[in-house]
Write a structure and sequence with these properties.
The complex is a heterotrimer of chains A (312), B (281) and C (265). In chain A, 77% of the residues lie in helices and 0% in strands. Chain A has 312 residues and is mainly α. The longest helix of chain A has 36 residues. Chain A starts with a helix and ends in a 5-residue tail after the last helix. Chain B is mostly helical. Chain B has one domain: MetI-like (MetI-like fold). Chain B is built from 11 helices and no strands. Chain B is elongated and about 75 Å long. Classes of the chains: A mainly alpha (312), B mainly alpha (281), C alpha/beta (265). Chains A and B meet through helix 1, helix 6, helix 7, helix 11 and helix 12 of A and helix 4, helix 5, helix 9, helix 10 and helix 11 of B.
Amino acid sequence: MHYALNKLAYGGLLILGVTLVSFSLMVWFGPDQTYTLIGKNASAEQIAEVRQQLGYDQPFAMRYGRFLVDLVTLNLGASNSSGEQVYSILKKTIPVTLALMIPGFILGNLLGIALGLLATYKKDQWIDRLITGLSVTGMSISFLVVIIFLQVLMCTPYGLNLFPVRGWQVTDLASYLHYVTVPTLSLVIIALGYNTRFYRAVFVEEAGKDHIRTAKAYGASPVTILWRHVLKNSMVPIITRFMFSIPLIVISGSLLIESYFGIPGIGKVTFDAITSGDQPVLKAIVGLTAVAFILIQIATDFIYKLVDPRIA
Amino acid sequence: MVSDLHYWSRLKNNRAGLAGLIIVVSFFLLAVGVWAGLLGQGWSAAGGERWAPPGAEAWFGTNLLGQDIFQRSVFSVRTAFEIGLIVSILSTALGAALGAIAGWYGKSWVDGTVLWLAGVLDSIPFYLFVAAVAFALQGKPWAMQIAMIATFWTATGRLVRAEVMKLKTREFVLSARAIGLPDLLILSRHVLPNTLHILLIQISITFVAAIKTEVILSFLGLGVQDGVSWGLMLAESTQEVLAGHFNNFLAASIMLFALLMGFNLFSDALQDAFDPKQAAL
Amino acid sequence: MSQPALAVSNLSVRIARQNGLPAVVDGISFELAKGEVLALVGESGCGKTKSAEAIMGLLPADHWHVSADLMVLNGAGLDGVSASALRKLRGSEISMIFQDPLTALDPVFSCGYQLRSVFIRHRGMNRRAARDASLVMLGQVGFAEPERVFNSYPHQLSGGMRQRVMIAMAMACRPSVLIADEPTTALDVTTQAQVLAQLTQLAREYGTSILLITHDLGVVAQYADRAMVMLNGKIVEEAGVQDLFARPQHDCTRNLLSCTAKADA
C-alpha cells in the first residue's frame, strides 16, 4: 500500500513536470496568438478583448493552473485550425492509431524474441552471426527510408502495386488488411534490428547463469533450457522493454507513418498540430502522453509481480 | 592502467569494428573536405536540367530543381557530422555531469531532482518536444540541436550515475575523501575519468541517434533549415519517387546507411571490448 | 575387484583455439570405487571444477577442448557418446551439486517444480507421481515439512535448506556417482556439518560414490576415504586420507595442511 502510494506520488510529480515543461515552452514562450485570430488590422479594444480571452494578461501560475484544471476535467477546448472539439478529435483518432500500430508493434517484438532465442541457441555459429549482422543492418536504416522504399515497392506501379498509397477506408477485415499491411511491415522492419539485438543480449546473459548449468547437469535438452529456463527468467527485461517502448512506438512512430500514408490517427493529428501550431491540440496530446506513461509504469509494476516470484 | 591494454587489444581484433572505424573516418575526411571548401560546394546551384540521369556533369544526376545530387550528398556529410558531433558530445557531457552529481549525492534530493528531470524529459514525446522548443525559440535556428541535447543526455546520465555510485565505494575514492579533497575535485579528476569507456560508447550511439532524428525532423520541416542534409534530400524525394525518379532517394539513403552502419559496427566493437563479462571464457 | 563407479584416464581440458596457453586440466587420471568418497583437493583455480564439468559434459565444445583416453561410468564410456544419450545419464546415473545453491537453482520456479522435473524426465513419472516421489525425497534429506519446501521458491529458503534441496535433486534417481563441487563453502560452519552428514549418509544408503571437490582439509579428514591433491591442472598426490595427513609427500599438500592447522589454531 505504502509502495503504491509512493509510486502514484512519483507519477504525479512526473506529470507535473511534463505539463510544466510543455506549458512553459508552448504557451508562455510561444508565439502570441492574438494576431492569428483576428488579423493585423484590429482595433485596440478588440485586441485587448482577445488577449483577455486567451488569458495573456494573467500571471504564469494562474495560467498554468487553468491549464492543469482543463486537462484534468478534459476541458480540452477546440482545435485552432478546424474548430472541432479536441475531445472528439481524440475519440475519433486514437482507435485508428491503435488499430494501425498494435499489430506491427507486437509482431516486431515477437519476431525479435524468436530471433534472439535462435541466435542464443546457436551462439557464435553462422546463424548467430547472420542474425546479429542483419540486426545491425536494420539498426542502420532510417525509418523514413524504409517507409519510402516500401511505399514504392508495394504501392506503386514501379513495384508490386498491391496496396494503396495512402488512406484508411476500413470497413471490414479485408479492407483492414489492405490498409494495415504496408505500415505494419515497415514497423516490423524498423524495430526488428533493435529488438533482436536487445533480446539476444538479454538471453545470452541469462544463458550464462549458474542455474542454466544446473539444468544442463540434470539432463535438460537445449530446447527446454531456452524455452523454460532462459525465457521465463528474462520476462522482467522483456516486459520492461515491451511496455516502455509503447509510448515511443505508438506516439512517435505513428506520427511518421500516419502523416506519410495519410491515415487519420492521433499521429497525423499531432503532425498537423505541430506544423500549424495548433496549441489546444498539442497541449491535450502532451497531457495525454504523460498520463499514458504513468499508467504504463503502474501496469508494468503489476505485471512484474505476476511473472517473477522474487518481486514481493 | 594495465587493464586498458587488454581492452585495446580486444578492440583491435574486432574486424567488423575496424571496418566501421574506417568507414567513419572516410566520411569524416569527406566532411573536412567540405569544410575546407574543396568538395560539395555546388550543392545549392539550381537551374540545371531537371531529373537528369547520372552523367559527366552531375555524377548522381539532378533533382527537381536541377541541383546536382552528388554535390548535395557530399555537402550533407558535413551537415551530418556537424549535427552529430555537436549533439553527441554535448549531450554526453551534460549527461556525464548530471549523472556524476546525481550518483555522487546518491539517494538525496539532488539525486532525486536529476532523476525526476530525466523522467520528465523521457516522458515527453520527442517530436512534440522539438516542436515546443521550436515555438519557444521563435524561428531561431538551433531548436533541433537543443531539443536533441536536452533529451539525449538522460541515457548517459543514468549510466554515469550508476557507475559513479559503484565507484564511490572503491578504495581510491575513499582514500581521496579521507585526505579531505573537495568533492568536485574527486569527481572530475578521479571518478569521471573512470567512466570514459561509457562516455565513448555513448558518444557513438548518440551520434547515430542524432543523425537518424535529423532525418525525420527534416522530413517534418523541423530540422535543417538552410543548407542541405540527407534528411532534406529524402524529404524532397518523397514526391519524386512517386513519379519514378529515384536518384535523390538512392543517393541519400545509401550514404546515410553507410555512415550509420560504420558507426554502429564501431560502437558494437567498443561495447564488446569494454564489456567485463566477455573477458573471461 | 568390482569395476569402479567412475574411471578417468588422461583427461585434459584446454581453451579452444588457444594452443599456446597451458591446459586448464592437464592429463589427470583416477578411479572412483563403488561406495567410496574420494576428495579432490586444491586451491582455487587449480582445475577442480573444470575437471568435474568436463566429466559431466557441461563444457560447450566451441569454447573448450576436452580430451581423454578413458572416461567410463559404470563400465559405459562417457565420451564419444551422443548428446541425447549423455542427457539421459545426467541427473540419473551421474549428478552434480554446485557451490552456491542460490544461483544454482532457478529463481522463478518453485523448489518442488525443479525436483519434480528430475523424476518426470528420468523416471517417466506423471506429475502426481513425481510430486509424491519429491515429497518423499525431501523427507529423506531431513526436511520436517516437505510440503512447505516443495511450494517454496529458492530465495525463500536458507542456504542450508537450498543445498539440501539440491541434494534431493541430485540423489533422486539414486545415481552411481555424485560430484559435489564445494557443496558447503557458501554455508556457515554448523550448517556445513549438517549438510555433509546428510549427504554422506544418503550416499551410503543408496550406494552412491562421491567425488567431493573441496579446498577444506577439515572436510576431507572427516568425510573422505581417499584424497587427490591437484595443482595447476595436474594431480600431484593421491593417498588414503590417513596417509595423506600423516605423511604428505608434496609441497602443495603440506601447504594446504599447514593452512588448515593455522586456521584451527
